[in-house]
Automatic annotation (TrEMBL):
Gene3D superfamilies: 3.40.50.2300, lambda repressor-like DNA-binding domains (1.10.260.40)
Organism (species): Pseudoxanthomonas winnipegensis
Span of domain HTH lacI-type: 2-56
Source superkingdom: Bacteria
Presence of the UniProt keyword Repressor in the record: yes
Name of this chain's protein: LacI family transcriptional regulator
UniProt entry tagged with the keyword DNA-binding: yes
Swiss-Prot/TrEMBL keywords: DNA-binding, Repressor, Transcription, Transcription regulation
Amino acid sequence: MPTIYDIAKHAGVSAGTVSRALSRPEKVLPETRARIERAVATLGYVPNAAARTLKTQRTGKILVTVPDIANPFFAQILQGAEDAAQAAGYAVLLGDTQQQPAREERYAQMLRRNEADGLIVLGHRLPPTARQIVKQLGAAAPVVNGCEFDPALGIPSVHIDNAAAARAAMEHLYALGHARIAVVGGPPDNPLHQQRLQGVRAAAKARGRVRQLRLVPGDFSVESGHAAASAWLGTDDAPTAAFCFSDQSALGVLAACRERGLRVPRDLSVVGFDDLASSRYLTPPLTTVAQPMREIGVRAVQLLLDILAAADVPLQQTLTFELMLRGSTAAPKT
């Protein structure tokens, strides 16, 4: 069965233009609309009834799915999303998927059943129903990604340049004089881990320090940071600095240092990622990469509302980050 992508290719227009021509023809130039209508007739395209329902009936609700509601990283994103949605007259439905594909799919089916007008995914996977909706509607699909950007999803996303941010953090440690640096990452299949690791390796390669990197995968949690640091603290070739891919894992590294009587940053410099609200109040305050978490939530909702209004939206919105220099990093002791 032909899709709107087939119609778009045949008519020489974008998938979004095809979707608008079918659902809101008054928004498309007559000449363009005529080409699309001829392509529809030639290919025998039949619009999907369920997909059409998504475009014509509104609930006034936006569904936001979160991989782990217990992770404080998502709190400010959700706050921004809630504020932006309320300002536009929408309510937010929150789904905690707990990183389980089955739960992700059940929430996506709410969109198919027209229980929400749009879906914002704060994880890095699209469940089958969401993928099907994106395939059917193309650029007009009311599905947006925030935070965990993966270009393979093919949907609009709001995020920072994770590779550049990680490289900036590593360059800071190298500039202080650190050569042996441990990197506490996330799950290997997570795009955030992959993108940040790309920045880490680029910085290490530029300094000729690739072989001195100690890479430890984790899951962005306090526990994974603690386990990673416990494995190498006190060894003969222990790193003099640690770069953690989340502030949560940095907390675990700091706890492991306290347990062994090590002082930060005298014995170990520590850098985190995210700039959670508590990070500046730690002892010592944590050097970290600050993400505009609340703005990510606001922009994700704005992207979704633009899609619902049949406006053209960019595939990516890359926001700025800032390296917050605080007391947890210093030159290595001699």
